[in-house]
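ingest -> fold -> write
write: protein_1
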Amino acid sequence: MGCGDACPIFPGKRYEEWVLEDPAGLGIEAVRPVRDEIERRIRALLAELQVPVRQ
């Protein structure tokens, strides 16, 4: 789920590539699972980076 633009590459930086379903044009019931998956991945990334998260 991306815009298809190429991102600049910076040596020594970490990049995440998340393959997500594109919910464009779909109803709210199709968007919610994508939203939830993004939240799950962000929380996992923050935990991996040891960033405190507010509940």
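write: protein_2
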Amino acid sequence: MIVLDHTDVERLLPMRECIAVMEQAFGDLQRGLLSHPLRTVWVPPVVNGATVWMPAYRSAPKPMFGTKLLFVLNDNPSRGLDSHQGQVILADGETGQIRALLDASAVTGIRTAAVCALATRLLARGDASILAIVGTGIQARKHLVAGRTRDHAQRFVDEVAAGAACPVAAAESVEDAVRAADVVVTVTDSPTPVMSREWLRPGTHVNAVGASRPWALEIDPKIYADAVVFCDRRESLCAEAGDYLRAVADRLIAGPEHIGELGELIVGRRNGRASTDQITMFRSLGLAIEDLAAAEHIVSKTQ
């Protein structure tokens, strides 16, 4: 059995490779080669956190089970630890024998940013050049900014600027950052909107990544009414995206039928951006097939 820690995963899964792996995975999902249920979340009593179970299966070309088991502890950042702890488990798709264990935090961070990069390539304007990241945690680092507080944003910039391939600056406010951006990424755990629809100028692309809980509203639900919207999976959107559920409840949109899946765009079943003035959005909930595909690719490089 192969065991790969955080450093191993980051070494074996460069972002550019992961983007290609995610594109193939979302296409395979549409082609019926990958499948998964909704994630299972259990919140134990008197624990400031949750356990999360995310299984997936690949039927071909080589059958494989993948399961991500996460322990989300909200107090961990104060301990100097990532809030997400766990493993991605790969098992033979015919015998069930365990093949590999991989650090789940590393896999999740890279594959989530890769999916957003893929969505941006497919949906953003070709001349997009200014990126605003709302949030300062692990996912913000992988997506590399505007934090919800100026101090947090500046600390984030100080930490990442030296290793970034482009200029990085802290905005005075989230509103300032969003109004100036061509692409906006939200990576917070906020239960209330961190940005308003009115801040988005024509032609902006949004990747809404954080707060995948049915009661959380990380983004303004009005965006759903005005944007061309894609998600990773409609089933997940309807069960886990609080901003989407509010948009439906407020009758801003009728339902999920007008929202595309990223895989449909990849295989040519849906069209994306039709004009430079359109606002586009990718609502990411995170799928188990992403973890499975990323883990398969990583393990293949060790053999």
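write: annotation protein_2
The chain has two domains: 2-107+289-300, 125-287.
The two ends are 12 Å apart (CA to CA).
pipeline exit 0
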